[in-house]
Amino acid sequence: VDAATQTHLTQQREALLYRQRELNADLHAAELLRHTQADAGSDGAADQKDAAERNQNSDIDAAQEQRDVDEAQLVAAALHRLDAGTYGDCLDCGQAIALSRLRVQPAAPRCAACQAVHEQGRSATRR
Ligand SMILES: [Zn+2]
Q1: What digits encode the pLDDT tens for the residues 55-105?
Q2: Which pTM does this prediction carry?
Q3: Disulfide: which of 30, 42, 46, 112 matches 50 by Cβ 3.0-4.6 Å?
Q4: What mean pLDDT comes out for the span 32-54?
């Protein structure tokens, strides 16, 4: 591993750890919000309209939270690959992922080509 790669890996680790802290904070906040909403719902004072609005809001929160959970898993997996020395290798084809791609998306598990195939496959099974 040359010095430039080492510097790159150190920067990627810092970016991943930073993102992990952000995601953990978001997820923690979402959890606190859920507890607050559960408490508010248990007093029985809210009418049905309020309850419906609350449900709608928590649906949006749930979708956002799920994205955060998914991304947190990608970030954790990327940190694991950094430790294992396989970071930057595409999960599917094993080729090195472009550095420019990793700078934008430090947690990217696949090269651009494989990610496109992966996402196509997912939307195809959804239909
Ligand atoms: Zn690939």
Answers
A1: 666 777 788 899 999 999 999 999 999 999 999 999 999 999 999 999 999
A2: 0.78
A3: 46
A4: 69
Burial degree of 9 (CB within 10 A; 0-12, 13-18, 19+): middle
How far does residue 57's CA lie from ligand 1's centre (Å)? 38
Count of positions (residues) in the chain: 127
Ligand 1 is an ion; residues with CB less than 5 A from it: 90, 92-93, 111, 114
- Under 8 Å between Cβ of 107 and 70: no
> In sequence order, what E strands does 37-88 have?
none
Instruction: Tell how far the Cα of 119 is from the centroid of ligand 1, in angstroms.
Output: 13
Cα 28 to averaged position of ligand 1 atoms, centre (Å): 33
Please give the DSSP secondary-structure letter assigned to residue 95. Answer: P
CA 127 to ligand 1 center in whole angstroms: 24
CA-to-CA distance for 5 and 113, rounded, in angstroms?
Answer: 23
Q: How far is CA 52 from the centre of its chain?
A: 28
CA 17 to ligand 1 centroid distance, Å: 24
Question: Which stretches of the chain are DSSP H helices?
Answer: 3-42, 48-84, 99-104, 112-126
